[in-house]
Amino acid sequence: MDLNKATIIGRLTADPESRTTPNGQTVVTLTVATNFSWTDANGQKQEKAEFHNVVAWRKLAEIIAQYLKKGSRVYMEGRLQTRSWEDQNGNKKYRTEIIADNMIMLDSKSSDSTSQKDGELDTKPSETDEEEINIEDIPF
């Protein structure tokens, strides 16, 4: 069995770029930055950023273009794909991208948080809307 799955949580480095293919499909490209921090041998805090190229198609692309902007915090899930091409000088170039199939917007809008999965919006109640659970109410 094979598995090709990428999951990242980070922030957009720029507004998503949306295009339409000649056959009418929407495609959006974006870059998501993820940070990694650690303490080195001298006790100094270190930090490094990784930049991930993400591509989304069809309805997910339309939603990303509509709701996300530079600085948006996002969860992205998809598969890794590497494509290659030749530049003007005949040199072979490669680019590895995450082809997104799931996205959750992590920025809160007022007191509600909105998420996106497979093109359907899902609004979750805020913490203030939840009732406290009493341990005696649990049936087991």
Oligomeric state of the chains in view = single chain
How far do the termini sit from each other? 39 Å
Helix content: under 10%
Q: What is the spatial order of strands in the main beta sheet?
A: 1-3-4-6-5
Which descriptor suits the 3D outline?
Answer: globular
What amount of the residues lies in strands? over 45%
Give me the number of helical elements: 1
Question: Whole-number radius of gyration?
Answer: 20 Å
- Strand-and-helix sequence, N→C? EEEEHEEEEE
Q: What is the name of the CATH architecture?
A: Beta Barrel
Question: Tell me, what is the CATH class?
Answer: Mainly Beta
Largest sheet: 5 strands, mixed, barrel
Q: Considering the protein shown, what is the CATH homologous superfamily?
A: Nucleic acid-binding proteins
Poorly predicted sequence stretches spanning 5 or more consecutive residues: 110-130
Content-based structural category: mainly beta
Round the mean pLDDT to the nearest integer and report it.
84
Structurally, how many domains make up the residues?
1
What does this 3D model show about the protein?
With 140 residues, the protein is mainly beta. It has a single domain, classed as OB fold (Dihydrolipoamide Acetyltransferase, E2P) (Beta Barrel), CATH 2.40.50.140. The chain is 7% helix and 56% strand. It is built from 1 helix and 9 strands. It has one helix spanning 58-67; strands at 6-12, 17-20, 26-39, 45-57, 73-86, 92-105, 108-109, 112-117, 120-124. A 5-stranded mixed barrel has the order 1-3-4-6-5. Strands 7-8-9 form a 3-stranded antiparallel beta sheet, with no helix packed on it. A hairpin with a 5-residue loop joins strand 5 and strand 6 (92-105). The radius of gyration is 20 Å and the shape is globular. Residues 110-130 have low confidence and may be disordered.
